[in-house]
Amino acid sequence: MNILLSLWPFLLIALVVFSGLFTVNQGTIAVITRFGKYAGIRTPGLRFKIPFIDQVYKRISYQNRSVELEFQAVTLDQANVYFKSMLLYSVQNESEETIQKVAFKFISERDFMQALVRTIEGNIRAFVATKKQSEILGLRRDIVEFVKEHVDASLEEWGFHLQDLQINDITFDQAIIDSMSKVVASNNLKAAAENEGQALLITKTKAAEAEGNSIKIAAEAERQAAQLRGQGVALFREEVAKGMSQAAEQMKQANLDTNVILFSMWTEAIKNFAEYGKGNVIFLDGSSEGMEKTMRQIMAMQQMEGGNK
User: What is the pLDDT of residue 29?
Assistant: First the structure.
């Protein structure tokens, strides 16, 4: 008993000392007050405060925090726009000054969140009010940049920093969505019609070009054929003239009448008509007068060709 009484003061001191020990979790900072007044901060780990005098006023996390927002805004042309977004924020830094702002600017976390959300919504509504409904869907990045520019200053005063703002969904009233769908559908039909018209024009143009090239090729082939036919006729006449001249020379050398050549040509012509006529009816004057008339015409043509030479 005497030993316990002698150790009592040491036990009491030890109890008082141990009552002043406390732990601060990683990622948080403890704010200490003494008689209700700020007395300092304690970083993560095992820490000490004056027993029965110092109090842990608040534990502040400097980790990233997120909150989802859903709100409505009205555009310049009086269209309702509904936003769903995610806000990512954190304590600006771990300095003592910043921690004091975070600890004492607002009475509670709920009040801070209310101020933060209303500030974000107010800035987005102010931006949307200057834009038309048709512009909103393409302005996600502009909205985020506008909010960051105007909100960061307020958050710095409160000791926080806006890490990111993501606008996940933008919707309109059902009537507007239906009208937008009709506009998109009509634009798609217009584009399809234009593409179809272009395709048809290209098809007809190519067909016309092909037909033109075909006609050009056929005309060129016909021209060459006609040229070759003319050359063949000319060569034939030239060869006939040469043969007749040689035959006439031989007849003269033999002291024979050259009219025999003409008579032979006449009979050969009649024979050729009979062989290759293919059933066609050809009327010829077979009398001696008709033959003499034909012979005279052939001799006249021969004399004309000789005079031209």
Answer: 92
